[in-house]
Amino acid sequence: MPAVTHETQPIEGQKPGTSGLRKKTPVFTHRHYLQNFVQSIFDAIGGAAGKTFVLGGDGRFFNDKAAQVILKMAAANGAARVIVGCDALLSTPAASHLIRLNKADGGIILSASHNPGGPQADFGVKYNIANGGPAPEAVTEAIHARTQQITEYRISDTDGIDLGSTGEQTLDDMVVEVVDPVADYAALMEGLFDFDAIREMIAGGFTMRFDAMNAVTGPYATEILENRLGLPAGTVMHGSPKPDFGGMHPDPNPHWARGLMDEMMGAEAPDFGAASDGDGDRNMILGRGIYVSPSDSLAVLAANAHLAPGYKAGLKGVARSMPTSTAVDRVAEALGIEAYETPTGWKFFGNLLDAGKATICGEESFGTGSDHVREKDGLWAVLLWLNILAVRGQSVAEILADHWRRFGRNYYSRHDFEALDTKAAEQMMHELHADLPTLMGTEIEGMRIASADDFAYTDPVDGSVSRAQGVRIRFEDGARIVLRLSGTGTSGATLRLYLERYEPDPAKHGLDPQEALAPVIRAAHALAAIRHQIGRDQPNVIT
Ligand code: G16
């Protein structure tokens, strides 16, 4: 058959970060770049021969062409079957579900998530393993190692495949099954949530706005929210995936989803607002006149999940990434279940979910999900909120106020300093790291430091150890500062500064988080000498 072997040589920098390999699009479209990485994936997993893969992406620029290259490479490497979304579209959680549903050996997801798309913007490739989740570090390290030794890749010398309609075709000896990207995912959601109760709430006048940010969630949200749940047409805004996301930065946070924020804070606001990101795994939750921080959302979902049919048996445990606020830990304590603290990166939740140690996981970076798939899942979070609202018959603001009254409020914010000089950012972390042993017991801004360390994680399931996962400084009153450099950017370095302070007194739950956190923010700037090190003292994104 027409499989051709091309000679190639290693390309520098093909090291997957927090979530797959993300680079500028011109880097990915450069000769052999995608091919080298995909061949390295196949080589690192022991070859593709006889295997079944799932393939799809968020529809960004180069998604369609990259999918054709990967199909031809899978065929030339002897794969038995590739299940691919129509038009090569699949949200990340839907891809995770398809891997599990079809017992596939793995999946390749084309996405740079919340990063902008377009010829000069970002592209990404991520490999997921047979449990449906992102490849763990051992696998991404093996892929990276392979990229440094590669000498050839194999690709079929055929025309591509028409991915415009569903059905089975063959590419050389490989079966290509083109599937509706939405159907199986929508069915999974119907099984988890009480759609009748949500329909009844909607029939009673409940209103909602969902911003799909011109990204992949549009078709999923339209099918589920409008077609199946009966919300009026137009509930989903920016609902058609576009290669450049219509110029939007598809990151669902108060900064990038400004239009939705303004609408939700305005006089005509609907009852509920939500947004999702480029590949559909992130979510932002809003009520009329109120923003729900992702850490609070995780805590509320954990405390109320039993109200949805899929979780009525209760939770086995919860897990959050280290920088995520400890609000969910308080819920876990009340429920008498374990709360796990993992490094940043959804891949670290995989073992806990597989082992039945955690049912719900979440991150401050607008990610929440459960053991229904092995990725975070934006629409899942929206539907669980809708289910809770329908059962409790209260507004988002009432539910949040209730939650804080019961558990106390963890004021929380993340400050991002983007596009920094990489050397300066690394030097800052290096010097801060060197100071850590001297910090315990010292006082700053009237708060005494209880501990200061660099987070290292030992996976409780397989014993693997991940070091240098972020600096954490804890104060005796429960306040906390975390600093780490982002692993998902594509230019320069991004410093993430995470700030948290616990307030048990309900009379003090109405403050603006920036105001409530002011002493913690000042302490962070002083301890890390941020202005001195990176030449800036103002973040460019605050969430
Ligand atoms: C990815 C990871 C998340 C992580 C986020 C931010 O999300 O899956 O676990 O929290 O990046 O990572 P960083 O702080 O290193 O930039 P996504 O939605 O981009 O795939």
From TrEMBL:
It comes from the Bacteria. One of its GO terms (molecular function) is phosphoglucomutase activity. InterPro entries: A-D-PHexomutase_a/b/a-I, A-D-PHexomutase_a/b/a-I/II/III, A-D-PHexomutase_a/b/a-II, A-D-PHexomutase_a/b/a-III, A-D-PHexomutase_C_sf, A-D-PHexomutase_CS, Alpha-D-phosphohexomutase_SF, PGM. Residues 14-153, 185-286, 295-407 form the Alpha-D-phosphohexomutase alpha/beta/alpha domain. It is an enzyme of class 5 (isomerase). PANTHER family: PHOSPHOGLUCOMUTASE, PHOSPHOHEXOMUTASE FAMILY MEMBER. This is phosphoglucomutase (alpha-D-glucose-1,6-bisphosphate-dependent).
